[in-house]
């Protein structure tokens, strides 16, 4: 998924990442430029190795591919059938638009983690963040902002899991659908994905 599917009920101001005071966005570089950076700097060399970049290895990115492609979003829980419930974000536009009408079912009171699977295609992406806003009956009930990190191009998908959360419980929690607008953004404000989905709380996993 690389296209944007936006829910106008969630304003952009609610999906702005927190800014760290005094933080300055670093200059963006190509894979080739990163590969040629000071090879004598051990900490820099370790950072480049974590991105799959080595001296003289430029050209790892594929310019024909999107900078970032999302594959799936999952709610991971030990109690869920198969360990997770997932949304395929590679579906067509119509199927993605139907996500709000076909909410995921989450068992009340369980611990779970939001997880995303994605591929980086054409260049190093740094300072990626995942944000989402949860609304119920038009009222904001939860927000999440998590650092994804920095990643270099590779063919195999990455998976990033975020902090553990606890699903609400009780009759009130089970009484409606939670609409979520999610966004992946980097530290200079570039939005790579923006989509809407939904979940409902039930007595058991469906």
TrEMBL record:
Q: Which GO terms describe its molecular function?
A: Rho GDP-dissociation inhibitor activity
**Gene3D superfamilies named among the record's database cross-references:** Coagulation Factor XIII, subunit A, domain 1
Q: What highest taxon heads this organism's lineage?
A: Eukaryota
Q: Pfam families, per this entry?
A: Rho_GDI
Gene Ontology CC, one term: membrane
Keyword list (alphabetical) reads: Cytoplasm
Against InterPro entries, the record matches this protein to: Ig_E-set, Rho_GDI, RhoGDI_dom_sf
Which Gene Ontology BP annotations are present? Answer: Rho protein signal transduction
**Cell location:** Cytoplasm
Region Disordered: what ranges? Answer: 1-29
Q: Which family does it belong to?
A: Belongs to the Rho GDI family.
Q: What does this protein do?
A: Regulates the GDP/GTP exchange reaction of the Rho proteins by inhibiting the dissociation of GDP from them, and the subsequent binding of GTP to them.
What protein name applies here?
Rho GDP-dissociation inhibitor
Instruction: Record the organism.
Output: Jaminaea rosea
């Amino acid at each position: 998924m690389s296209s944007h599917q936006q829910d106008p009920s969630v304003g952009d101001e609610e999906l702005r990442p927190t800014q760290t005071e005094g933080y300055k966005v670093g200059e963006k570089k190509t894979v080739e430029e990163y590969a040629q950076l000071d090879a004598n700097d051990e900490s820099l060399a370790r950072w480049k190795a974590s991105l799959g970049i080595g001296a003289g290895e430029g050209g790892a990115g594929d310019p024909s591919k999107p900078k970032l492609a999302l594959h799936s979003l999952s709610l991971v829980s030990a109690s869920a059938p198969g360990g997770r419930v997932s949304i395929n974000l590679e579906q067509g536009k119509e199927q993605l638009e139907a996500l709000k009408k076909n909410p995921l079912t989450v068992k009340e009171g369980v611990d779970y983690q939001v997880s995303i699977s994605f591929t980086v295609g054409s260049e190093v992406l740094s300072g990626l963040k995942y944000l989402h806003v949860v609304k119920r009956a038009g009222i904001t009930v939860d927000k999440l902002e998590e650092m994804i990190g920095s990643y270099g191009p590779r063919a195999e998908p990455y998976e990033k899991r975020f902090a553990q959360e606890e699903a609400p419980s009780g009759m009130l929690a089970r009484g409606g659908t939670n609409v979520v607008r999610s966004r992946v953004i980097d530290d200079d404000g570039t939005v790579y994905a923006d989509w809407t989905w939904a979940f409902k709380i039930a007595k058991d996993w469906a």
